[in-house]
Amino acid sequence: xxxxxxxxxxxxxxxxxxxxxxxxxxxxxxxxxxxxxxxxxxxxxxxxxxxxxxxxxxxxxxxxxxxxxxxxxxxxxxxxxxxxxxxxxxxxxxxxxxxxxxxxxxxxxxxxxxxxxxxxxxxxxxxxxxx
Length: 131
What we know:
With 131 residues, this protein is an all-alpha fold. Among the domains are: 53-83; 102-131. The chain is 73% helix and 0% strand. It is built from 4 helices and no strands. It is elongated.
């Protein structure tokens, strides 16, 4: 052991003790004890929290997991043979069918821009309670 190391720690400890001894003791305010005891009594008198109904929750989760698992199993089981029949070529659509779809896309874009501008204006006006 290094004797200088222990001497340094004793010296630091005595310095800390000296500094702490020179400070004034902390005295609580006059109503502190009464307010703390009142809070303790209120907490002790409060009713117990309602326990979570695990006995009802766990079976429901197990049933939901089973249903989703069974659905995934059936989808995979029936989907694997059908994958071989899927063609990767895009379907051919006549021009008469493409034009209404293109127009609907522009209408959807215009509606989206209108909605965003309306929400921004409500936000800037300070009334953003809708969304």
